[in-house]
Structures are given as structure tokens and as C-alpha cells.
Amino acid sequence: MGSFWHSFADMAVLDAGGELVVDRGEGGYIWDEDGRRYLDATAGLWYCNVGYGREEIADAAAAQLRKLAAYSTFGDLSNRPAIELAERVAAFSPDPDSRVFLTSGGSDSIDTAAKMARRYWQLTGRADRTLFVTRENAYHGMHVAGTSLAGIEANPAGYGPLVGDVVKVAWDSADALRHVIDAATPERVAAFFCEPIIGAGGVFPPPPGYLAEVREICRQSGVLFVADEVITGFGRAGDWFASNRWDLQPDIITWAKGITSGYLPMGGVIASPRVAEPF
């Protein structure tokens, strides 16, 4: 072992047993440094939707890097790739009139969505709506907000309080969500974070009727429905977004992974017209 610090790993075990060093990939396969081939059934980490070694992607990235590698989009600054990408992502979403905020990955997207949700309620004159509702077994990345929203017990353990005002409910019970909103009163609840298909927490598909019911509960109470599609977005659930497949019409969608297939780090947040308007 050298200086590289692995994420989601027991470093003592790695020190004792060593690493599996991946050397190259082609299509759905990867090879280690000893030449052994593996079927990459996990698609890296649920991101390599189009396979490895796609020369046309590498060529397009190289051409853009030669022209303009990056530039800030703060304030009134923009660039044509960002503009065109936002339009295309919005067109794939449940509402093509949505706005698209770009990030560098899934955890960034979750933190942005959490801030966006609370800020939305401040801008609409209801600053007391700060409570987030999340689900058991949920995974929402490992930044500050995502760690606080975690439904996998090991993920927030050991860090102390991060983001306050978070309540966890059973992953498969719409009644549990309704009870929490009623108990807190809707005037306190900002948003419900929901993976359409739970990923890292065990790969659990939604029980029949669950998504439609929790979406209606949020609609009736005014709670923002945040669909975490970092894993399910861009074809993995049978449509561009799982929200399209289940007709969820979310207020906010978070995405990352499959949009670049891991060729570049990127994520984003889709804000529905309802959420975008007060900004």
C-alpha cells in the first residue's frame, strides 16, 4: 500500500491484503494489471452505462479540451456546451420547462438539492419548512447533506451532528411518510428524498403502488418531492429517468453517473418550474 486512501474501505484490511488494480476496460469487461479479465457487472459503480473504450467519447472530449477545457458559469458567464447540455437534459426530464443546475457528481447534486429545497421555502415566505424526510436503507452520497440523509446506519456513524432537522421513515411504507408529515405538521417539512429504486442500501425496487402514493402525499401536503436518480437516471431503469417510467413529476431530480458513463465527473439537479420560479 502506498499513499492512496481508498473510500469505503477498511484500510487495515487493505494494508494486509493489498489492492486489485484495474488497468484497462473494453465494452463490458475490465482487466487487472496481471492481465486477468472480469465481467464488470457493477458498471464501475453503477455509472458505466455505455461501456469502456468508446473512442468517439474520448475524441469528443479531446476536441473540447483543445478548444476550451472549462470556464466559470458564475453570474452572466456561460459556454455553448453547458447551454446545450442543460437543454437536452431538460428535454429528457418529466417537464421540459425545468431548469438544470450542473455539478461535479452525485453527492454534490444531493447537497445542492437540499440547499435548493430550504432556500425555496425561504423565498416563498415559509422559512420554518426546514425538515427533511428520508428513508431507511437510503443512500444519498457522502457529502454533508447526503451523510445526514443516509438510511444506511454505518454511513453517518462517527461524524456527530451534521445537518439537523432530518427524520427517517421505513423505506416501503407510505403510511410512515404520512404519519411523519402529520406529526411534524406540513408547515415544517421541506422535502422528501426518495430513490425510485433503492441502490446501495440493498437494491430494493418500490413496492407496487408505493411511489404513486408517496408522490400524492407530498403533493397534498405541499412537501417537495426530491427524486434521487443518481443511479437510476439515463437508462438504468428503462427510461431516461425512473421518474418518467413511474410518472412521478418530481419537484427536484438529482442525477450523475450514467450521463457521462464515468468518462468525466459530472452531475446535476433538475428543478421543476415550481421550484425554479421563486429564484
What does this structure look like?
The protein has 279 residues and is α/β, with parallel strands linked by helices. It has one domain: Type I PLP-dependent aspartate aminotransferase-like (Major domain) (Aspartate Aminotransferase, domain 2), CATH 3.40.640. The protein is built from ten helices and ten strands. It has helices at 11-17, 43-46, 55-67, 80-92, 106-123, 144-148, 174-184, 210-221, 242-245, 273-276, and strands spanning 22-26, 29-32, 37-39, 99-103, 131-135, 166-169, 189-194, 224-228, 252-255, 267-271. A seven-stranded mixed beta sheet has the order 4-10-9-8-7-5-6, sandwiched between helices. A three-stranded antiparallel beta sheet has the order 1-2-3, with no helix packed on it. Helix 7 packs parallel to helix 8. The longest helix has 18 residues, at 106-123. It is globular.
